[in-house]
Amino acid sequence: MKYINKVICASSILLLSGAVQAKAPMVGDIIDATNVNEYKEYILDSTVELIKMGLVQKVTETSAPGALDNIDYMALSRKNAGKAKILDEYGTIGLEDGSAWIGGIPFLKPTLGIEVMQNYQVANIGLQGDDWSSPKGVLSPLNRLFYVDASGEVYKNLVMAGAQINMSARTQVEPKPYIDGYDDELLRRFFVFLEPYDVRGIVTLDIQFQNQSRLPESYVYLPSFRRVRQVSTAQRADAVAGSQMTQSDLSGFSDPLGLWSFKILETKKMLVHTHGSVDVAQYPEEVTFHKGYFPNAQRPVELRDVFIIEATPRNPDIIYGKKIMTIDVETFRTSDFAIYDKQGTLYKAFTQDWILNEENLPRPVWLSIYNLQTKEATSVSYTHLTLPTNREV
């Protein structure tokens, strides 16, 4: 009798407090500001805040195993299974003899946070391909940055061309598995600013290294001075071109892994974006941001197993207190990050949207970062990104 009374009392307290019972997501469910609290168990806190700002998500059918990956890439991953080794305390990977990683997902069954993040770095940033650019040429528009103010108005946008070459862990295009003489590098990536007129001709080059304790080398060409200068590593915390993104936010997470510590908080089912019917902003088409901030009227999500990764900085120069990330258990791609300041307050929300090309290679179409404290945002659209490409581009 005492037990029953306790149960009744506890239930009454929940009802009086207005607690919302968690709802299991079903295909076809529409999640918006009116019902998001029912789904909070399956959504990061940062994305919950975005939904309260007007983001709408639609639950779609969960993709079948293997449906989101390139068949050849996964076959190579299985062929190389067990060969990857963590070589140092910073998370650098390679083979047993210390040579560069030869391609594919390094750790198919990761048990450590650093292993999950190496999978993310290899498969997500490389897009399971080797090189990417615009099929219309490296000086053709590739992506656009949209700047949104606190009132939800786009007040500026930049147009850029660019390309990326994977220097090692190459799987699609010769030379494989690395370019001779550059096996100590992960990738080289450059962007050329095309619009507006005041930034036209600026070129940036970023070189990322295998050694996860080594900061990238960054260079910028300034046409007004007709000179190239190296960007100080201390500027990685600065805003990129006045946006909400820092250097470490590019591609979601572009810092050397040795600057952070990683922990798997749990593995659970979450509502994440993997691919689907998202609006691709083809240049020079106009873009409508829904509720002022969101590139899609409805963002498709599916219920999938993900690693919840907590990243905490080892480097005191990093401006963030921590990042909480969803990393897909199968694809090791990201969907949502929650970024906290050094006081532990929710600071920024990150989302990334994908489609799959005809070879089932992942292609990013939107990357957005929202400052939840100022209500400003920056969204990057990838207009004509094609992969893999020939490295001569």
Features:
393 residues; mainly beta; outer membrane lipoprotein receptor (LolB), chain A; 16-stranded mixed beta sheet; two-stranded antiparallel sheet; 4 helices; 18 strands; 12% helix; 33% strand; globular; disordered C terminus
How does this model look, in words?
This protein is mainly beta. It has a single domain, classed as outer membrane lipoprotein receptor (LolB), chain A (Clam), CATH 2.50.20. It has helices at 2-17, 45-53, 71-79, 113-125; strands at residues 30-31, 57-59, 85-86, 93-94, 131-132, 143-148, 154-166, 185-195, 203-209, 217-222, 227-231, 260-272, 299-313, 322-328, 334-340, 346-356, 362-371, 376-382. The strands form two sheets. The protein has a 16-stranded mixed β-sheet that branches. It has a two-stranded antiparallel ribbon with strand order 3-4. A hairpin with a 7-residue loop joins strand 8 (185-195) and strand 9. The longest helix has 16 residues, at 2-17. The chain is globular, with a radius of gyration of 22 Å. It starts with a helix and ends in an 11-residue tail after the last strand. The model is unreliable at 1-18 and 389-393 (pLDDT under 50).
